[in-house]
User: Fold UDP-N-acetylglucosamine 1-carboxyvinyltransferase from freshwater metagenome.
Amino acid sequence: MAELGAKAHNEHGYVIAEAPHGLVGAEITLDFPSVGATENIMTAAVLAKGKTILDNAAREPDIVDLGNFLISMGADITGLGTPKIEIIGVKTLTPTDHTTLPDRVVTGTWAFAAAITQGDITIHNCRPSDLEVPLDKLVLAGAVITTTKDGIRVKMDRRPKAIDVATLPYPGFPTDLQPMIIALNSIADGDAIVTENVFEGRFMFVNELTRLGAKIRVDGHHAAISGIPQLSSAPVVATDIRAGAGLILAGLVSDGVTFVEGGYHVDRGYPNFAEQLQALGADVSRVD
Assistant:
């Protein structure tokens, strides 16, 4: 943002940002194709003076969707879905109507839920084309995935096979589904390696999963998992949205009662998660 002319400083625990002379287009190269950085720079640049070229931009469907939303308001953006996005600033934007695309991570979570629990779940209003790598991995694990009129059906009728995964920026395996793949491998048949290349803190989830009896050894960016037939219940703590969802799914394949503290994290990304699981036959309840 500083390259666009913004100034920011910390003051009493708050970040104060301003652009006293307005924002001006610039050529920006990201060290890493960050989704958040791409979204913020692109959104700011649409009203900046001149041209902004953003290189090594994130390519997630969410970026394309946000870009199309801004274009419908009058923004001049090209290159969406590629590593180089070009934005020519406009003076004003106008109101518009826009329907956001389905959340691919939520779709992926339900797909993994079916595989982990040896269940049969039909997911409506989703775009399987946004999840090619995760769905391919589930097929390798033994799941049967078929397309429906408005989504997919995921069915698993046996214990999953262990599968190796390395997280990568889109179109690779998303880091937000890493807790789900580790939960699946923890009860899978065989051994697997999961490599985290995107989010350093993602393996915090592993400490809680081992409390459920999972056999996992972490070495740097790698987690080695040896599957066991069933996990055991224990109180665990959700440290973020995806970790919470992964722990809940792991609790479904644990004996006894598993308590997941920090459920408010899950609510941020999965509204009515417990109720939806109940509708599928799971014995899940909220404890306030």
